[in-house]
Write a structure and sequence with these properties.
GO cellular component, one term: cytosol
GO molecular function, one term: RNA binding
Shape: globular
Largest sheet: 7 strands, parallel
Structural class: alpha/beta
InterPro entries: Alpha/beta_knot_MTases (IPR029028), rRNA_MeTrfase_TrmH (IPR004441), SpoU_MeTrfase (IPR001537), tRNA_m1G_MTases_N (IPR029026)
Number of helices: 7
Distance between the termini: 31 Å
CATH superfamily: SPOUT methyltransferase, trefoil knot domain
Keywords: Methyltransferase, Transferase
Number of strands: 7
Protein name: RNA methyltransferase
């Protein structure tokens, strides 16, 4: 096997990305402190053509050198918006017809491996602060909670790792759905 060169990967340009069809998913960051986590989330969202990233509260917005360091330019390709609070973002998402899922350990959470998104439904996932998680008022306003099964001694994952896992889960389901429609 030979590693591919960047020029052999046929990646989209930023303009091509912006005009391409997106996965019907919006990632909402609720008070994420680390700019490196924000950048990493942008990069994962670019990889899977997520519709947008919504930044809320104390979550930093581009342009910022620390975001760029991990996003590597994905902050320029992925659409983003800022909201003063995640509760405001959730309200707008509901008005847009999105089903909003908080990614949090809650009573009655659906384990991610058991969650199958409804075909044709637009979704948003809310990821929370590195210490406190998703605010309770945002959990209350959400349509449900998704939880990543964990089997070690720690009770949580890094928020950017969580974003990657959750976005990949939605991408797998989106790919399956697209193949079935062909």
């Amino acid at each position: 096997m030979r590693k591919l060169k960047v020029t052999e990967m046929n990646r989209l340009t930023v303009d091509e990305f912006k005009s391409s069809e997106k996965m019907p998913l919006i990632v909402v960051l609720d008070d994420v402190r680390s700019l490196y986590n924000v950048g990493s989330v942008f990069r994962s969202c670019d990889a899977f053509r997520v519709e947008a990233v919504w930044l809320c509260g104390i979550t930093a917005c581009p342009p910022h050198v620390e975001i760029h360091k991990t996003a590597l330019g994905a902050e320029d390709s992925v659409e983003w918006r800022y909201f003063k609070t995640a509760a405001e973002a959730v309200s707008e998402l509901h008005a847009m017809g999105c089903k909003v899922m908080a990614v949090e350990q809650c009573e009655g959470s659906t384990m991610l491996n058991e969650f199958v998104p409804d075909a044709g439904q637009r979704y948003a996932v809310v990821l929370g602060n590195e210490v406190k998680g998703v605010r309770q008022e945002v959990v209350d306003a959400s349509d449900g909670c998704l939880e990543i099964p964990q089997f070690g001694t720690k009770h949580s994952l890094n928020v950017s790792v969580t974003a990657g896992i959750v976005v990949w889960h939605f991408a797998q389901e989106h790919i399956k759905s697209a193949k079935q429609q062909q």
